[in-house]
Amino acid sequence: MRWIAPFLMLVLVLAACDEKTTPSYDALGEDGAGDDVHTGDATGDPIPDWVPEPVLPPDECEGPNPPPTGPRVDFDVDCEPCLAATEEPRDCRVDEVEEVIHGHVIIHLMCTEGSSTGLYHIETFSDMPMPFVLHAGDRVWFRFFEFGPVVSWTPWYFSLFTEEGKLLLAGIDSPTMLPHDRPGLWFQPITVELFDGICPDEEFDCFDEERVALHVTYGDHEAYVFDSTTATLGYGEPYYIQVDNAKFMKNHTCGGSVPGMFMYLIMRIPEV
């Protein structure tokens, strides 16, 4: 086991029809923001009540917050027995949410796959913790995958969703920003994109290192979360993003170097 890493609102002209519609999503959250919309344009397509002016990207590199290192996070996933290795979601029930010490939490899941049953333990650590929206008895969808090894560690990812497909908790520890370095359903309704070219390179013996940011969006909300910083996104039950590592390694002069390091947690937290 290893140790756990000035919206200006623009009013849209509404058409005569004022029938409300509600977005829906499947068990993996294909939709996601849950914002009210009106129908009423010529095509009958839904249009949002309010559209915020886009947030401009930052023009300077944000330093670690708090300095000198920012948040430190880590996670581990154990199982007994482990079910078949697959990225397909598993139907699970939360047996217990155990807080070992403040910031060190173990989530015990009883999962099924066909006729097989397995007990999974998701262990998370953060020195800037927030409470989870997760309780014993909750039914969740659980996705977990690891592959490798790649140089010095095995990349892996996990995510927990409600039955309706709302992300509760996710973690990534990998040389790429996204699982398999491609978009997917791991974080729905959160989307995560790469934002780079802002922070200057730092020279090391075998490579140059560039701190990068995650451009995270949730409905009409967005944030740029640089390496070693955090952000809270949304309202009601918002999402808390903690980025321990988000960096590229470039211009390698030694063997056995990875293209990047990404370690972050995304969690849904109680109403604030």
Structure, described:
With 272 residues, this protein is an all-beta fold. Helix content is 0%, strand content 47%.
Number of helices: 0
Structural class: mainly beta
Radius of gyration based on Cα positions: 20 Å
How many β strands by DSSP? 20
Determine the mean pLDDT: 79
Q: Specify the helix fraction band.
A: under 10%
Unreliable runs: 1-48
Main β-sheet description: 12 strands, antiparallel
Q: How much of the residues is beta strand, in percent?
A: over 45%
Shape: globular
Spatial gap, N to C terminus: 34 Å
Order of helices and strands: EEEEEEEEEEEEEEEEEEEE
Secondary-structure map:
Blueprint (H helix, E strand, L loop, with lengths): L8 E3 L8 E2 L15 E3 L6 E3 L1 E3 L20 E8 L9 E12 L2 E10 L2 E11 L12 E8 L9 E7 L4 E8 L16 E5 L6 E2 L4 E4 L1 E6 L2 E6 L2 E5 L5 E12 L9 E9 L4
Antiparallel strand pairs: 1-5, 2-3, 3-4, 6-9, 7-8, 7-10, 8-9, 10-11, 11-12, 12-20, 13-16, 14-15, 15-19, 16-17, 18-19, 19-20
